[in-house]
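Progress narrative, work stream C.
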Amino acid sequence: MLPVAGQVTQVAFPRWPFSAFAFGDSPALANELAALVQAGRKTATASLPIEFVSEGLRLPAPGDLSIVTLADGAPVAIIELVEVRQIPFLRVDAAFAADEGEGDGSLRSWRTAHQAYFGRVCAPLGAEFEETTLVLCQRFRLVWTPEQPGR
């Protein structure tokens, strides 16, 4: 995940902690994935536990709210996690791949893209990505977009 540019203001919702992030590891990918979230086509995401552990963060959990941003830090959506499963990469199924909304929606496309992405994530952390590596499969619902403020 890309760090958010600029300052993030904490929202006063004592019941829920908010995080803010841009999907992906490049500005182009961040903007592309944010557009898929806004359109309602992307309702899932996958990450590696090591991403959170290496930064001293807790793992995502159902009920977590996040502000999705563009690469420049502009907020485009608020999402709420509704499901989080930790499973080996090779056990990710076609339904989850389709819910990610990326590429052609196939499991094959998902595996190819994510194997490359997870390899890029692991390298600077001194880890090696393998097909048995645990993946955090997260499903979310769209709570807010600027186009639908009263959602």
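Work stream C, second folded protein:
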Amino acid sequence: MQAFGVDAIFGRALAALQAGQPQEAALTLQDALSDAVHNRGYGELQQLAQMAAGLLPGDAWLGCAGLYAAALADHAQPAALLAQARAWLESTRASFVESAQVTNEPVRAEPVEAFRQAQGERVYRFNKSCNTKPKLAYLVSQPHHHQLLSAVIAAHDTSAVEVHVFADQAWPGLPGHVKRHALNAANLAATCQANQIDVVVDTGGLQPFAGQYAVIEQLLRRIAPVQVGWLGCLASSGGVFDVLLADDVSVPPGAEAHFSEQVVRLAGGQWCWTPPSSAPAVTAAPCLTRGHVTVGVVGRSLRLGPQFLSTLTQVMAGEPTLRVCFIGKVCGDEAQRANIVAMLAARGVTTDRLSFAPWDTREGYWHWLATVDVVLDTCPASGGLSLLDALWMGVPVVTCVGATMGSRQAASVLTAMGIGQWIAKNSTDLTRLTLALLQCKSELHASRLAMRGRFQQSPLLSGQRIALQIEAMVRT
């Protein structure tokens, strides 16, 4: 998508609508939004989401994409995200009911007793007499999530739960006791019913990309008595999920009013990760042999919003010799690169202080991480999995807690590792904290060399920790 691409897409979609072809208009916008998420930048995604809402406000797929874009927006607030999700769900369910595609009743509701607390939130309990060994299924539509789930799934007690996994990607090392199924959305409800699944744990979240919308459609049909959201959730689903797995950082105490789900906080944090056995050893901080420090930006292009770039310019202004290197698809997006360079140049940053590296392989990413001193998180659209690799390679990550669940991902990881000193309270504090860290090369080096050991001793590598808590949840 070139700089003028958004206008061209609007023209094609509008022409299709005027020609009485709403499906063609919807497909045009779907393709453009998918491309924006995987290959383009923050601006394109936000513009396209607004455009889609204006042209086809009742389209469920486009509305779901709008929820994802809203959760990544600089101005995102949890109350507004909840209201938007509820409105989308009400509209979508209404259209499903009208076409006889869905009922609001569970497929097999007898193992569940639901009651309302004083605040009106739903709490789900199992009737153990109906099923003494709950059947638990993980829905894994995102190909990289095996890094976050393998240890948890392998750690489940086979005497406590029967574990199923629905996934399409190869999954080497999956224990033999785990029942594996293809993630075929057309057969998902029937397969869950045939296997008498009590609880499904979806890890893709409320977004329609990379095949996740087909999964969401089935969740709207109620494929199990209890539906749980985990990992992919950036905000409340508005009612798609009954339970949300989180932690004290991602959903702090007192924030439950912004979630339709029953919030279950995992002690030690909601993240679990299997580190790569082939990762190279941690190297010395590169600033020790260079005449400058280097900040790395690893967030995907759609996370590089104006607020993050503004913070980055303030950091660069405070350290005149600092260099910044971006990695990822932004390297190949000429329009977005030009926008970043222009914004930074307007604040006095010269182009010789910026560089862009392509993402090729995970091994290449590890070697690139050896060239940066600090990773600056893309606040408020906080990163996730890519930051775990950075920390494993010893690179300090500096972040800021935002208002939403999606803006607290890095803070959740850092808290679990016991390094809350790298978590800022706001953008001003983030600038101050980053500069203080960059100006102490000895601390950078010492932190780098100690990081992997700290990671290994943290709760993040314990799959059993989370497995036991999920088992306790389904048997409560």
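Residues 392 and 453 are 9 Å apart (CA to CA). No further action is required on this item.
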